Amino acid sequence: MNINHIKKAALGACAASALLSGAAMAQETVTNATVDVTLQNSFTLTQTTPMEFGTIVMFCDTGANNTTTATLSTAGLFTPGATSGGARVINVDATAPNPRSQAVFDVTGAAPSTTLTVTLGGLTNLVCGACGGGNPTITLTSLSNSSNNGTINTNNTGDATLNVGAVLTTAASCGTQYLDGLYQGTYDLTVSY
Questions:
Q1: What pLDDT is recorded for position 77?
Q2: Is residue 118 situated within a structural domain?
Q3: What is the count of structural domains for the chain?
Q4: Domain range spanning residue 144?
């Protein structure tokens, strides 16, 4: 075998080895690279219009267990229930002292085009704070809302509007008749993702 061929083969092997070892050394590593995310789970729920039944006549049945209702729809429409024994409701004035209206709530700052869940509860009876003890209460029987099966959808800017109505029921077998005055009760509204 020719010595020149052996030298050339050895030089070629060394060059290939140098190239391979040089490639292994040409790398960079970044450690602890960061990952960021900003959460905005909160949004604003504001009552823009309180629920107002207007001025009505309401009598409870002092002689029997009869009751009747007053209904305010989510569109603000008032419907007196049928007279039952001595229990009756009569519409008087939809404008005084406050205009009759369903409750209106606005959602702002939520995720755009997103479904939100609506939950109503925590109903309390309506009482007349200025009427004194022994005055019968009005039962806040049920609530209704303008959601679609308990959900509302925000628009493309993350806003939505929800209307709430209610049914009031007269006391059964009340000992005394309702006194004139402002009767107030409360309820809870929760809107969530």
A1: 96
A2: yes
A3: 1
A4: 44-192
Does residue 58 sit within a domain?
A: yes
Q: Of 187, 189, 191, nearest to 152 (Cα)?
A: 191
What is the secondary structure of the chain as a DSSP string? --HHHHHHHHHHHHHHHHHHHHHHH------S-----------EEEEEE--B--EEEEE--SSSS---EEEE-TT--EEEPPPBTTBEEEEEESSSSS--B-EEEEEESS-TT-EEEEEEE----BEETTS-TTPPPBEEEEEEESSBTTEEE--TTS-EEEEEEEEEEPPSS-SSPPPSS-EE---EEEEE-
The answer to whether the CB of 188 falls within 8 A of the CB of 121 is yes
CA dihedral 106, 107, 109, 112 (to 10 degrees): -120
Contact 48, 105 (CB under 8 A): yes
Query: Of the candidates 175, 168, 162, which has an alpha carbon nearest to the alpha carbon of residue 57?
Result: 168
What is the pLDDT tens value at each position of the chain, 193 positions in all? 555 555 555 555 555 555 555 556 899 999 999 999 999 999 999 999 999 999 999 999 998 999 999 999 999 999 999 999 999 999 998 887 889 999 999 999 999 999 999 999 999 999 999 998 889 999 999 999 999 999 999 999 999 999 999 999 999 999 999 999 999 999 999 999 9
Domain assignment present for residue 129? The answer is yes
